[in-house]
Amino acid sequence: MDITISKVECSFSVHATENFDKNMEALENLIPDELIEETEIVIEELEGGYENPIEYVVTSFSNKRLVTKILEYIVSKLSKEQKMQLYDEFEERFNQDKKSFHIRIDKQGIYNNQLIISSATNVIKIEIKLRSYIKDVDYKQFLIDKGLLSEK
Known about the structure:
The chain is globular, with a radius of gyration of 16 Å. The chain has helices at residues 20-29, 33-36, 64-77, 80-88, 90-93, 107-111, 139-145; strands at 3-15, 41-47, 53-61, 94-95, 100-106, 123-132. The protein has a 6-stranded antiparallel sheet. By secondary structure, the chain is of the alpha+beta class. The longest helix is centred in the middle third of the chain and has 14 residues, at 64-77. It has a single domain, classed as 50s Ribosomal Protein L5, Chain: A, CATH 3.30.1440.10. The chain contains 7 helices and 6 strands, in the order E-H-H-E-E-H-H-H-E-E-H-E-H.
């Protein structure tokens, strides 16, 4: 195959005014139950404006089996309309230099087990990193074939 998914990374910030445990529950709703035990979570302590503490949470999947399962799970939670939205917004969401595709998921929505694509700031950012060893490959078609994007 010309293209592979090298990593799926989920990241988000938890501000001092937010409930950390509730945010972690939202993350767990984005990961299939069978992968929770295998998920490594890195938490970085940051400082925001007015010296407010911020916790930056990152989890990534680079093992081929885990990447496949997490992507299938995300795809299964997206509606046909959301996949069409991602298709329409491909150019804005795909970073050609990094070869990565970004989706921002509303944290409150995923906490309530609803996958809502958002452009707001209170989100879990999903970054799908792609790799190709040849030039001139069609990343958009690859993501269509994986079920993440859908034409009208």
